[in-house]
Amino acid sequence: VLGGDSRAVARAISLVEDGSEALEEISANIMAGTGKALSIGLTGAPGVGKSTLAARLVAHLRSDGDRVGVLAIDPTSPFTGGALLGDRVRMQEHATDPGVFIRSMATRGHLGGMALAAPEAVRILDAAGYDVVIVETVGVGQSEVEVASQADSTVVVVAPGWGDAIQVAKAGILEVADVFVVNKSDKDDADRTVKDLRSMLEMDSQDDPPPIVQTTAVEGGGIVELWNAIFERHVRQRESGELAERRRSRLIREVESLAAEKYRMRAVAALDAEGQIAEDLVAGRIDPYRAAGLLSHMIGSGTG
Amino acid sequence: VLGGDSRAVARAISLVEDGSEALEEISANIMAGTGKALSIGLTGAPGVGKSTLAARLVAHLRSDGDRVGVLAIDPTSPFTGGALLGDRVRMQEHATDPGVFIRSMATRGHLGGMALAAPEAVRILDAAGYDVVIVETVGVGQSEVEVASQADSTVVVVAPGWGDAIQVAKAGILEVADVFVVNKSDKDDADRTVKDLRSMLEMDSQDDPPPIVQTTAVEGGGIVELWNAIFERHVRQRESGELAERRRSRLIREVESLAAEKYRMRAVAALDAEGQIAEDLVAGRIDPYRAAGLLSHMIGSGTG
């Protein structure tokens, strides 16, 4: 992985998907080589053109000489065949480029699901020398927002006429967006969508509200402007110390979640081993807090 | 709460929202009184008419003499003013009925968020003697699906012309739905939506595929059919033992999550107390697995 071998990277990411025990060793060995890549979370409702936009961004970055990794993630559903095939089709022009690594990711066993698997996969690409890692998620639910907001820079894509301004607000995404993209901006109601977004951002009254960039990804319009908006904000956040602070709190939260998930596995095993707790719980003789307390005592005293 | 006093119920649910420590005692005292209510999760995209449908269901249940609790939950967003006000307006006819308890719920501090808070609130209403508890969630993201699928019966509402069939598949909701509702069935493309849903359910090939009921909630059409569909499936699941199995695994998962969240809080405190772990992590000297292992050791040996 550290040598940038794309087959080694692919195998390592498969281990992340599986939640393999080999991950602990890989993670320990690559950690010191991470921290150089700029990670970009790309999220938005299905159909807004995220994949086309990602392909255009990749082309732009390649013309600058950057190596790019792309992870396509759908954390919510096993029904991803269509979306991810779509990604691959649109990404095809980059499939044979050794400077681009493209991968659709699912979790098949990683403890903690995609929220913990995605940052590990990003670190693998980072350690392998990819300059930019794009994490594309499907949908705007809480899990997608969580995954996308683990990146250094979160780009939220909307398209005119999807009622997207409201969806964005509903998903709690205003708070995590670094850059908004209104794609399909050749459509009639694009200006209206920009206006809606702007007034929502004003209501939210952040210190440094995210810029709104208009693109027509199919024709390649606005891609340079989009990259510039992402990069300018990134530089500003790096210089202000916000990037370092974000990466720090992200890592700490990740460790807390990892510790909690490992503990959950011990709790599952302890509940299995001591069937009486489950029986008492189901019969209503003890409540969930008491059951959790009993489990914690069992695990703590080493009998679990 | 056990006496069915609605002010006591309201106060107890506020404690759930706050994640108050008093919960442990309340939870212990009401547990034996739970298990009688039928809980119904009602989910679907904003605008499909869930609230109107819920109000109609309440009216129908009241005409049968049942006491009904309604919890309106938006787990993903602080931007809920509009939606929840909507609920209240549509629910107004029931607001003065002592046999109906209506409450919009948010989490202000409950550990584990709505996924753990919602089942506690349902148990409070159950113990207070409400025969049916409707949990209405906003949206079809993973969190909403999680909350809605914790009910005994999960009802998924779609409306024609929203591209909802695909949204439903994306949200992984096929697997958790007990009954599908196509609301606004007076619209032209309602039949098309029913057809789309049916073919998706056929692809999914479940043993006992969920029925699809067509309603026009504003006019009150199809509500009796909907209730009959919910209740028939509930009876079937009760007789086959599936309901008991579901409730059992739900409680066990809840305890596991509760134990893991309590542990997460200890991990957060341990990371704070032992600053060196965070420093080493952020500097890349140790990786997240090693950090989680060190934390686990600290907490286990009682130094955390």
Identify the strand order in the major beta sheet of chain A. Answer: 3-2-4-1-5-6-7
Number of helices of chain A: 12
Please tally the β strands of chain A and state the result.
7
Quaternary structure type: homodimer
Please report which band the strand proportion of chain A falls in: under 5%, 5-15%, 15-25%, 25-35%, 35-45% or over 45%: 5-15%
Could you characterize what this model shows?
2 copies of one chain form a homodimer. With 304 residues, chain A is an alpha/beta fold. Chain A contains 12 helices and 7 strands. A 7-stranded parallel sheet of chain A has the order 3-2-4-1-5-6-7, with helices on both faces. In chain A, α3 crosses α9 and α10 crosses α12. In chain A, 52% of the residues are buried. The interface between A and B is large, with 69 and 68 residues.
In summary, what is this structure?
The structure is a homodimer of 304-residue chains. Helices cover 53% and strands 12% of the residues of chain A.
